[in-house]
Amino acid sequence: STGEGVVVAVVDTGINPFGRDGFGRLSDDRLMLGFNAITGTRGGIDFNQHGTHVAGTIGQETNNRTGVAGIAYNARILPVKSLSFLGGGLYSWIINGIRWATDNGADVINLSLGSGSYSRLLEEAIDYAYERGVTVVAAAGNDGTDEVLYPAALEHCIAVGAVRYDTQLASYSNYGTAL
User: Fold this and answer.
1) How far is it, in rounded angstroms, from Cα 27 to Cα 80?
2) d(CA 54, CA 24)
3) Which uninterrupted H or E stretch holds 8?
4) What pairing do the DSSP bridges indicate for beta strands 76-81 and 41-42?
5) Torsion sign across C-alpha atoms 160, 165, 170, 176
6) How far is CA 113 from CA 60, 64, 142, 159, 165, in A?
7) 150: how many CB neighbours lie within 10 A of its CB?
8) Residue 129 near residue 101, CB atoms below 8 Å
9) Could you read off the pLDDT tens digit of each residue along the chain, which spans 179 residues?
10) What is the DSSP letter of 133?
11) Which residues contact 145 (CB under 8 A, 6 or more apart)?
């Protein structure tokens, strides 16, 4: 699948739409107008580049001889800024982002973030998305330990780890039974 007909919300540091490699022509409407869950306003430029990197892995334009190609290059990308320019944030920002994405057309929510701390309110936000048919995917963590971080460790979240080019577990990737 190329992701056609799917809206993927990237709940992260925002997305920079001004790079050399993009998400299609403006007329394609693949990069949607997102939301800044920190300020409660529309939009949210990425000054950290993590969200842009994640969005590129998911849906960067392909066959344009520039940069990389996303795995779902026909998906629509919905940026949801829920982390600061330093890459950190509050659970309340992430929760607001998850709920906003769920209520604004996301089919999939990507959370390339994590914490060792459980939050009942975060779990309720993940459950809210799940109960409305939204698939939530989260990073297991980058500590190289056998502990899957939250929200990836939650029941209604798909936890993903990282592999090397030869499909072996990357040394930095968390792993465990929740993966």
Assistant:
1) 21
2) 16
3) strand 7-12
4) unpaired
5) positive
6) 20, 29, 9, 11, 22
7) 23
8) yes
9) 899 999 999 999 999 988 888 887 655 688 999 999 999 999 989 999 999 999 999 999 888 888 888 999 999 999 999 999 999 999 999 999 999 999 999 999 999 999 999 999 999 999 999 999 999 999 999 999 999 999 999 999 999 999 999 999 999 999 998 89
10) T
11) 174, 175
> Is the bond preceding residue 79 a cis peptide, omega within 30 degrees?
no
Tell me the one-letter amino acid at 145: T
Q: Which two tokens stand for residue 96?
A: 């607001």
Amino acid making up residue 72? A
Distance of CA 17 to the CA centre of its chain: 16
Q: How many whole angstroms separate alpha carbon 133 and alpha carbon 110?
A: 14
Q: What is the spatial distance between Cα 43 and Cα 55, in angstroms, rounded to a whole number? A: 15
User: Cα(27)–Cα(34) distance, rounded to whole angstroms?
Assistant: 16
